Amino acid sequence: MKKRYQPVLLVLMCVIFIFTSACSSKDNDGAEAGDSTKLTIDVFSMLANYAGEQPGWFAKLVEDKFDLKLNIISSNLAGGQQKIATMMASGDLGDLVVFGTNGKDYQDAIKAGLLLDWTQDGLLDTHGQGLLKYAPEAIEANKTQFGGGTSVYGVGFDVGTGEGPSEGVTMSYGPNLRWDLYQKLGSPKIKTLNDYLPVLKKMQELEPKSESGRPTYGISLWSDWDSNYMTLAKVIAQFHGYNEGDGLNPAGLTLTHQNKNEWQGILDEDGYYLQGLKFYYDANQLGLLDPDSLTQKFSDVSNKVKDGQVLFSHFPWVDNVYNTSERTAEGKGFALVPFEEEKITSYGMSPYGGNRIWAIGSKAKNPERIMEFLSWLYSPEGVMESNYGPKGLAWDIDDQGKPFVTEYGWKALPASSEPVPAEYGGGTFKDGMNQINNTTLKLTNIHPETGEPYDYNLWNSTLNHDPDPVTQSWREAMGATTAKEYFLNNDMIEVSKPFFTTETPATTPAQLQQKLDGIGKIIKEYSWKMIFAKNEAEYNSLKEEMMTKSKGLGYDEVIQYEVELAERTVFPHKK
Is residue 244 over pLDDT 70? Predict the structure, then answer.
């Protein structure tokens, strides 16, 4: 009897051995959630400005916590829209996917079955607790707009809670000036946008050469951000409480007020876009406009700001390259100098998240572990560590449970080339930063454990930390601790109120998009010609040509479509 069962027992033992061996020798493609197998995932980011394996401290964080290595694929660095189309055609968008908008590409990916439904097999419920806890309304919004009320194919970025401006110490826009030169002029009052020009002219006369001996300019522009129009002329509208598009539908040729049912066409005679073009034309007539503006890129302007060639800044974050610790210690640096009529645009807090989307590819390797990683990015710990490095390096928590920047952090933050100790991943702090280039929770949200914002610039310990001479001088003159506080104190912010519509964001019909593309080329071409016009007569002639050609291509039809769309989906929500 025993002899009869022995072969069966041997067969069973062999089967068990083979099965066990196969399971234990799975490669990365078959790694189980929660096991210790190292897994390299492809992160296809339409926002990343880096390609290759994530280096440094963020790489070590992710590897230590999730046994993941991140291979970043950037469409920005590999053909742009053509790269996106190629990935879509291949049927595989990678493991973790970041969309620049929730428009056509994202919606086409859902229709083509290229994105994973997070409700399948309990993926979100089991492995996405951070998302469900800290971004529940953003998850529901995605389900309603893109998943027919049952499926979830992603989550929006910059999920915000609370009310008021969403920005940190500074707003998204300026204008900022060289504070030291402005003070030397006696800090003249600036009531309107045009009042900057005589002030900038005097500043240019005070400092006609940069530190390297190059000529200084009041204003330097760049063209590589242009879309359907000259982007930096549109920024003038954002100084007045308007924004491109309407916050939901694609930006085309309209500007809408942040919280009122008001809009402007780009070519409205009394609109802010044309005011912007006239402002730059007048600047050029005074010798204040950088003659390289049309042909240079943002990186070129950034280098000029760094060298001291530029005296006016549209965006406060651009100032960082000039405001080094060495310069500010000497009292030299950029700071906010608002005009009295300014109503700066604020995007506001939205619990529904913005239009940049995190998603998981339908062919993802080990979606459970990817979901756990993404869920961590939406948690308080993930927000802190993915932005500022591991706790104990650039930041820490004191005995009272309050955050503070460490001695190392003052040298490393926000993105310096300070060497990172080997135990934290080595390399430099800047190179080790999260290279995916998309956010999760608004940094101005309040951390539930510290009671202070995630943004280290807004921590009490930071605001009270030995301000440099430029900051101290600005605070004394303006009666505020931060630029945002000044705008708030003086009722100079137009904050977009959060709203939600169940409609899927529209994609412009193909025939209309073709007209829009043609009109956009005309507006861009003539906008640049106008600001460099020889005289007022040529300026007006070019403006008339731009109007006539744009209308001939269907400008009014495009405007009508965009306004009807906004009136149906957006304006009813703005009270």
Answer: yes
